[in-house]
């Protein structure tokens, strides 16, 4: 049985900008995410050496909970007229 708890932060994404800014994109921190869950694996010999017959059963069960937190960033472009 395994338990996992993984946090990903500083998720970066290139966001397009208007060409009038002189740049094509801006890299923004769009948030963080947490993954946690349990994974269970099992291996059972159901029948062993019964008239030269062997039966094995294998299994895997996984459950995951995902939580995400996004931060919103506003872009302000100043223009002079």
Structural class per helix/strand content?
Answer: mainly beta
Round the mean pLDDT to the nearest integer and report it.
76
Element-level helix/strand string: EEEEE
How much of the polypeptide forms β-strand, as a percent range?
Answer: over 45%
Strand order, main sheet: write it out. Answer: 1-4-5
Q: How many helix segments?
A: 0
- Assign a percent range to the helix content: under 10%
Annotation, overall tally of beta strands:
5
Q: What global shape is seen? A: rod-shaped
Please tell me how large the radius of gyration is: 26 Å
Distance between the termini: 65 Å
What does this structure look like?
- The structure is a single chain.
- Residues 71-81 have low confidence and may be disordered.
- The protein has strands spanning 2-8, 12-16, 25-29, 31-50, 53-70.
- The strands form two sheets. It has a three-stranded antiparallel beta sheet with strand order 1-4-5, with no helix packed on it. A two-stranded antiparallel ribbon has the order 2-3.
- The relative contact order is 0.30.
- Helices cover 0% and strands 68% of the residues.
- It is an all-beta fold and 81 residues long.
């Amino acid at each position: 049985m395994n338990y996992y708890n993984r946090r990903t932060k500083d998720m970066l994404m290139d966001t397009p900008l208007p060409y009038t800014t002189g740049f094509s994109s801006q890299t923004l921190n769009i948030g963080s995410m947490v993954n946690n869950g349990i994974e269970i694996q099992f291996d059972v010999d159901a029948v062993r050496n019964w008239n030269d017959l062997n039966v094995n059963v294998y299994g895997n069960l996984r459950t995951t909970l995902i939580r995400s937190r996004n931060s919103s960033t506003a872009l302000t472009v100043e223009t002079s007229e």
